Amino acid sequence: MNIKKRKGISIMNSRRKRFLVLCLACLFALTAFTGCGSKENGKTSNGGGSKTAKGGKEQVTLDFLMCWNGASSQFPEDMKNNPISKELAKKTGVTLNVQTITTDEGEKLSTIFGSGEVPDIVNAPYWDTNPGSSGDFIRKAATEGLVLELDPYMDKYPNVKRMMTEGVSESYKKYDLEHPDYNGKHYIIPQQTPRTDADVTQWAYNVWVRQDILKDLSVEPESIDSSEKLYELMKQIKSGGFKDINGKPVITAGTWGNGWNYSDFMRSFSRDTVSDWRNLDGKITHWIFDPMEDKKVLFMRKLVSEGLFDPEAYTQTDTVAKEKIATGRVAVLNGHYPNLRDFMRQTLYKTNPEMKYVPVGPFLDADGKQVTAKVSRGRTGSPAIFLSSKCKNPEKALEFIDYINSDEGLKLVTFGIEGVHYNMVDDKPQRTDEWQDKKENDMTAYVNEGLVFGDNFVGADPRKGWWPEKEDPDYEKAKEVTPLEFYDGTNANFIARDYPDRQEYESNTAALDYGKEFMRATFEDTDEGALKILNDYRKKLKDAGLDKFIEYMQKEIPKVKDVRY
Predict the structure, then answer these.
(1) Which of its termini does the chain have fewer beta carbons within 10 Å around, N or C?
(2) Nearest 5 degrees, angle CA 45-CA 46-CA 47?
(3) How far is residue 204's CA from residue 361's CA, in Å, rounded to a whole number?
(4) Cα dihedral 193, 198, 201, 205 sign
(5) Cα separation of 386 and 189, whole Å?
(6) pTM: predicted TM-score of the whole model, two decimal places
(7) Alpha helices in 334-393 (DSSP H)
(8) Is the pLDDT of residue 526 over 70?
(9) Within 13 A of 346's CA, how many CA atoms are on the CB side?
(10) 3-class DSSP state of 61
(11) pLDDT for residue 37 is more than 60
(12) Interatomic CA distance for residues 206 and 51, integer angstroms
C-alpha cells in the first residue's frame, strides 16, 4: 500500500483500497470518456442534449468517473448494449460514459479539480476528510464550488436522502459528511452504510497460500498462526522448487499492485487498535512510537533480504501484479476474499483448480489475541458519490441513483431481469441455475451481462437481510480466519481532529511519506540501517510538533467516555 499518512498497520487500516477496487469496480463504460463531454459516432458532443425515447422517458448521457485504481478490468466488453444497462436506460433515461483510472485515486481527484473538468458523477474514496486524504480533496473542491450542493434535491429523491442519513455513524456524519467547512450544506452521498450489523460486508482480508504447495509440504493452513511461522513456511517454499502454470519458478510472496496490502504479512505485530493513537502501559502516544513499528520494519527487511518477498511488489502496477497472480506464480498472497475469488475464477482456477489459494491462520496479534476486522457501528467511512457543480442534468443523475437504490432498482442491478436471470421463490429472488453458475464459474460472462452494476451506486444496502446469497464454503472459512468485531465508543482519531494546532501540524508534515520511508528501510543492508530510517522519521515528526500534539491528546482523551484507540 502506498501509505501517505500511514495509520499503523492493523486489519482495520488494511480495509481501504482494494476490496473496493474489485467490489466497487464493476460499472459500465459506455463510450470513451472525454472530459465532461462524450463522443458519439465519431463526433464530439457535450452530452447535454436529450431526446425522448419511445415511451416518453427523457434520455440523457452523463459522464461518470469510477475513481478507483484498477476498476477497468471489471467492466463489460459491450459497454452499452448489455441487458442491464439497456433496462436502466429504459427506466431512468440515463446512459453513462465511464472513465476508470490506473493511478492513485487522490492524484486523479487533484487533477480533475485542478482543471475544473469534473465529470457529471464521480465515485471516489471518502474515508475521512483528514488533510491529504481523498476526502480532503473532495471537501476543498466542494467549498470552492466544484461539487454540487444536494440540499435542493434531497426531498425529491427519497432513496438518495436515505443513503445520506441511514447507517451513518454519528462521528462520520459530524466530521465528514457534515464537515464544518460545508456550513450546514450537503455534498456527499455515502455508500455501503449498513443499516444493521448483519448488513456489514465481511471482506475477509487474509494471507493466502496455494493449497497444492501446502499439501506438498504437509503443512496445515491452521498451523500458520504468526508472522514468524509464515516466515518459516516461506523459507520452505523458496527451497521447494515450486512452479507456476508455465513452469516458471514461483515468487515466494507478493502483493497486488503498488504493494497493496503488504501489512497482512505483519499481522503478529499489529494491536487491537482502530486509531492512530496508543495507550501503552497507561501512557497515550502516537502509533509511530509503538515498539511494534520496529518489529514490522525488521520483519519486512528480513523477507526482502532473504529473497522471500517480491522486490517489485511495492512499485508494480496492478496489471503487472495480476499477470503474476493469474498464473499462480505468487505462492503466498494477501488481500480480501471477494477480490481473490472473482479474479481467480476468471483466470487460474479455470485451468488449474488444484492451485486454489486458501487462507492460513487465524493469526494472533502482538497481544496474543486473534486478529479481527474491526468495524464501528455505523460505518465510519465509505466510498462516496458526488456530482459536479456543472453536471449537465443533476435531476436525471439523481433520478438514476435514486432508482438503483429503490427496491425495484436494487433487484434489477443485483439479480437482473425476472424470468431471464432469476425467478421469485418464496417472495425472494433466486438466480436461475445458468446465472448462478456463471456467477460462480464465469465471472466474465456475468460482468458482461451488467449484473454487478449496482455496486457502484448502492448505499444502505438491505440485500443481505432479505436476498440471501448462495452459501460459499470457502468464504465462510475465510471469514472464520479473520472475523468481524464491532466496537462502540469514540475513535481517538476524532478527538485528534479538534487539536487547535492541527492545521499547522499537518502543514509541517505534509511532505513526509512514511510509506516510502518504510519501503526504503526494508531494502537496507542491515537492521541498524533500517531502524535508522524509522528513527529519522520519528525525529522529523517530533520536529514538526508531534510532541505537542501528543500532550494535547494526553489531556483531552481522559475527558471523553469510551475512547477506542
Answers:
(1) C
(2) 90
(3) 12
(4) positive
(5) 6
(6) 0.75
(7) 337-346, 348-351
(8) yes
(9) 17
(10) strand
(11) no
(12) 49
Which segment of 88-102, 368-382, 460-474 scores lowest on mean pLDDT?
A: 460-474
Closest CA to 131 of 395, 499, 421: 499
CB–CB of 330/254 below 8 Å? yes
What are the C-alpha distances in Å from 455 to residues 318, 382, 420? 21, 13, 20
pLDDT band for 54, please (50, 70, 90 cuts).
low
Rounded Cα gap, residues 96 and 92, in angstroms: 11
pLDDT at 488: 80
- Centre a 10 Å sphere on the Cβ of residue 523 and count the other Cβ atoms it contains: 15
Apex 347 CA angle, 435 and 355, nearest 5: 110
Q: What is the distance between the alpha carbons of residues 497 and 561, in angstroms, rounded to a whole number?
A: 17
Torsion angle in degrees (nearest 10) through CA of 108, 446, 470, 89: 70
User: What's the residue count for the chain?
Assistant: 565
* Weakest-pLDDT range from 47-56, 271-280, 501-510, 540-549: 47-56
> What DSSP line would sit under 425-459, residue for residue?
ETTEEEE-HHHHHHHHH-HHHHHHTTTTGGGGT--
Between CA 518 and CA 297 the distance in angstroms is 7
* C-beta separation of 242 from 327 below 8 A: no
- Give all domains of the chain, ordered by start, each with its CATH number: 17-198+379-457 (3.40.190.10), 205-274+284-374 (3.40.190.10), 491-564 (no CATH)
Residue 46 pLDDT > 60? no
| Closest to 328 (Cα-Cα) out of 218, 232, 438, 254 | 254
Pairing of strands 251-253, 428-431: unpaired
Closest residue by Cα to residue 101 from 124, 64, 72, 78: 72
Place of cell 463522443: 39
Nearest Cα to 292, choosing from 263, 327, 333?
263
Dmax (CA) for the chain in angstroms is 73
At 193, is the secondary structure helix, strand, or coil? coil
Q: Residue 462's pLDDT is what?
A: 62
Q: How far is CA 367 from the centre of its chain?
A: 27
Peptide bond into 261 cis (omega under 30): yes
Centroid of chain to Cα 239: 34
CA distance 488 to 502: 25
Q: Hey, how many other C-beta atoms are within 10 angstroms of the C-beta on 280?
A: 14
Task: Give the residue with greater pLDDT, 51 vs 353.
Answer: 353
pLDDT of residue 440: 81
Cα 340 from chain centroid (whole Å): 14
Helix (H, G, I), strand (E, B) or coil at 333: strand
How much is the pLDDT for 198?
75
DSSP per-residue letters across 276-317: SEEEETTEEEEGGG-HHHHHHHHHHHHHHHTT-S-TTTTT--
3-state DSSP assignment of residue 393? coil
Give the whole-angstrom CA distance, residue 134 versus residue 494.
Answer: 17
Q: What is the spatial distance between Cα 253 and Cα 209, in angstroms, rounded to a whole number? A: 9
Residue 529: other Cβ atoms inside 10 A: 13
Nine cell digits for residue 40 = 458519439
